[in-house]
Design goal:
Blueprint lengths: L2 H21 L3 H13 L3 H25 L5 H24 L2 H21 L1
Helix pairs in contact: 1-2, 1-3, 2-3
C-alpha cells in the first residue's frame, strides 16, 4: 500500500476516533465520506470497511466512557439489539439500490441531521 494512501487511512481513523470520543459519532458520518472522497472507495466498500473500523472504535470508546461512569448498559442494549435487525435490512437494501441513490440518501441524512442540530 502506498505511503500516501496509508497516511490518509490513518488520518481518517484518527478523525473518526476523535469525533467518536467527542460526539459519539465517527463511523458512517466520518469514515464513509472520507473513504469515498479521499481514496475513491466505492460507496459499498467504504460502508463495509467503516463497519470493521467501528468495532474497534466502539469497543475502546465504550470502555473509556465506562471509566467516566457515562455508560448505561441497559439502554445501550435496548438500542443495540434491535439494531441487529436494522443492519441486516439496511445491508440487504444497500445491495439492491443503485449507488447514486445511496449517495443521495446518505447526503440527505447528513444534511437533515446538520440542519436539525443548527436549529436546536
Amino acid at each position: 500500500m502506498a505511503v500516501g494512501r496509508t497516511t490518509k487511512l490513518a488520518a481518517i481513523g484518527t478523525a473518526a476516533g476523535f469525533f467518536s470520543g467527542l460526539f459519539g459519532v465517527g463511523g458512517g458520518t466520518v469514515i464513509v465520506p472520507l473513504l469515498v472522497l479521499w481514496l475513491a472507495y466505492p460507496e459499498r466498500v467504504a460502508t463495509g470497511t467503516s463497519l470493521v473500523a467501528i468495532v474497534a472504535i466502539a469497543a475502546v470508546g465504550a470502555l473509556t466512557q465506562l471509566g467516566y461512569g457515562t455508560v448505561h448498559f441497559d439502554k445501550g442494549l435496548l438500542i443495540g439489539l434491535p439494531a441487529i435487525a436494522g443492519v441486516l435490512g439496511g445491508t440487504w437494501l444497500q445491495q439492491q439500490i443503485p449507488t447514486r441513490w445511496l449517495t443521495l440518501l446518505f447526503s440527505g441524512l447528513l444534511f437533515g441531521v446538520a440542519i436539525d442540530l443548527v436549529l436546536r
